[in-house]
User: Fold this.
Amino acid sequence: MTVRIGVVVFPGSNCDRDTLRGLELAGAEAVELWHEQGTLDGVAAVVLPGGFAYGDYLRAGVIARFSPVMRAVSAFAAEGGLVLGICNGFQVLAEAGLVPGALLRNRGLRFLGREVRIAAERLDTPFTALVGDGRPLRMPIAHGEGCYFADEATLDHLERDGQVLFRYVREDGSAAGDEADPGNPNGSLRAIAGVLNARGNVAGLMPHPERAAEGLLGSDDGLPILRSLVDAAARAAGGASSERMGAGGRAPVAVGPG
Amino acid sequence: MIVVDRDPVVAPQPLHRALGLTDDELDAIRSRLGRDANDLELAMFSVMWSEHCSYKSSKPLLKTLPTAGQGVVAGPGENAGVVSIGDGLAVAFKLESHNHPSAVEPYQGAATGVGGILRDIFTMGARPIAVLDALRFGDPHESRTRHLVDGVVRGVGGYGNCVGVPTVGGELVFDPSYGDNPLVNVMAIGVLEERLLTLASAPGPGNLVVLFGSATGRDGIGGASVLASATFSDEDGSKRTSDGGPAGASPPSSVSSKRPSVQVGDPFAEKLLIEASLELISRGLVEGLQDLGAAGITCATSETADRAGTGIRVDLDAIPRREPGMEPFEIMISESQERMLAVVLPERFADVAAVCERWGIRCALIGVVTDDGDITIVEGGLDGGRAIARIPARSLTSDAIVHDRVAAAPERRRLAPAPGAPEVASDQLPERGMDPGAVLLALLGSPNLASRRAVFEQYDATVGASTIAGPGHGAAVLRIHGTPKALVAATDGNAGVSAADPWLGAAMSVAEASRNVAITGARPLGVSNCLNYGDPTRPEAFWQLSEAVRGLGDACRALGLPVTGGNVSLYNESPRGRILPTPQIGVVGLLDDASAAIGPAFRTAGDVILLVGEATPGLEGSEYARIAGVAPEDGPPALDLDRERRLQAFVIEAVARGLLESAQDASGGGFAVALAECALWSGLGARVRLPVAGSPAVDLFGESPSRLIVTADARHVAAAELLARQHGLPVERIGAVARDRLVVELAGSGATGAAEERGSNVADSIDVALAELERAWEHGLPRALGWDQVG
Assistant:
């Protein structure tokens, strides 16, 4: 049976249809979740797509976090449900405190749309299990506020606990530096492109795997990330239903922090 | 009542002149109404009879353009051209200018330019899938130019990135003539289900007229800056009828005015408008739909009524406003952005309102369709209200005044070279000791030919997951979801040649845009255009416009392309000077198999390089002439439209048969620059031997049209050559794709002769490392704009 994954549609979301399509390519039944709804229609995982939710006025993601659907998403995450935020979705997760850190304006202070390379730090998460090795993955970024920031202590703690999910890397796959490194497009601290929450069931990344899901468009390196989510969601759904017969009703998650 | 602020130092003048209407136009209004117009009616006429809305100078010329063509569903006169692409789908596309607003407030001018053209697309039921922007600025080293470039680029990105429509191509050209008057021409492309095609028409007396989207405010009241400033009449009248709408953007007047005349865009509101409009259309809830642009509610109501042969009765009080105390004329001509007008069956109004509410959009019932053919503005309720204006809809639109302008060629007009007629190249450079390698590096690093990366990376080119080929590599290629097909789009505008010969410049622009689409393997479907010219009351400027329209028509007929839409931007002049006459051409084509598309970049070392077509003398208008100078008697190269047609037929067939690995148009910067681009875009070099008959400068850097650099795998070369000959085209094996150097040896009489002249110390060949080309090409633009100093 194909697993149902929800894609939240905020007013101003503009990658919602791309993300629905990407998840279908990855083998899921993808459904829209309207920003005003207070429940998640029993989906096995939720994706917050890119765009400019509520216009991103004031600050990216800061208004979206207060929407009814985000209350449901937070509860779902607290239950161990799988949540992935892409680009603006990552910004929303950070504003909602569901993942650590903040996303500041790009180092160059300009919107940046280009192909980048990222490498997965962890290959044992619901978002990267099928990525294979740590080879560089080619996919686009398109954002004005993608510079990942957290204080030094938090960054150390994220690295120690294995919460750094993706880093920007150079063409040859070597790690990109913090500042003025062509491999690090937006000046993200420690070249962090994506992170996990402490429990390992909520992740956010700035690059767009859904735009790199077909060879025709130049790269399908993003597909394994979406496949990993679909695969983990299917197992979580199966687990959840079986568990509900017992006690708990909590979807077990493949991993927690190392 | 309209109050005109009186400036003590300037003598009072009649209202119609303050509004930009001439005395004979006032008489024409009187004859159409059979009475004197009141002030509100005069204001409505003044915006509808502006050059931008009425095409009063260009209409007689535009009538001559070929508009019929295979699959054309909607042509000029509609919001956008629509052409069928099979599978029950159609493509909607349109090119439009927003020049003057961008000159005043570059960010908002460019942003609302994008917003306006997007509305033209989704108003017809099409989901916008791409934007291309063709930009012209002055000297990149000037601070004003840098300010305008920065604002316009941020504006295009700020709007397009947010609404989620990828910016996939366009142009960026610098010439001092655009210093005060930049050009911002934007093309938008959308895809629709043909059965959902929606027209801007108000059929069915008794139907309701619904305004949804943003509230109406004082922003973008072009007329207001006229009304509010009596000093306006002192100024260059050009500003008054710019494409920003009347008084779109006259800096002094908008400064003296108490009200802004540049519209302010809200891409978030537009995004909601797109989704709501497409939902209304797909659910069949609207009988007609029109976006509000120039001349606001006046234009939307009169155009929709006129198209349907009906009238509309508008209740002024029902129109949502941003601020109290707005004058009736302000409400009627406001150009507030992100507004739509829908014509709805009474029983469907509730559903329409529900859709708007779901998307959080304001929606108001502001009027009703009538059978009297009049636009009637009432205060105090639709029935029983007091009429404060009544104008026959057609007198505002299809029966607007048309001027018969005088055209006169300038004194030293060069005749267009007869197609194929030989000319004597008068380039002096070989004698001056040209080192072709140095010239190539200089061209690659020049602002008009260097990499555009620094600009297009500020745009989202991949949202929508359709972009097969984005900006920076020739034409844009966009997959059509749900089909194996792709749309291909390119814009081109040859102002340099137009300055010498406006007929030739326009014809060459059509040929180049169509060629850039064809070399991907796509079949060009149609042409949209934006004609950027000067003051039509100046005989030479009107001659340039009429010659350009003639060239546009001749080229489209020769290439079998329908003109499906476009706009005209006149009065592109300022006290400091006039722009080069600039015909901007947008072409959209169809690829039946998206995966068969080829690009201009080399594919594999060892592939054979073929040169199809040949150079014709003439360097005028070329980038080479810009940096090297050119003898005054030298003209632009010739264009043979029949050869162009055969060249495009050849490359389309060759790609369909899988004979080619890459195809590149050898025009901008000439053969040498085109070859270098194939290398730069692929990371591969080339080793070629170029036969030179006359001047090496002409063969290397001349911008003769109808020439392609194509590569083929060794086993396909013979077939490709045969196909070219079958199309009656000269074709030559000139070399092969190599590793990391670009080597061009000049062969033939011209080369040796020139080499002797230059003396032995000057190379008569190009031999440059790819890395060196890369350096010049990558840094050229940021350096010119001073962007290399800042992050």
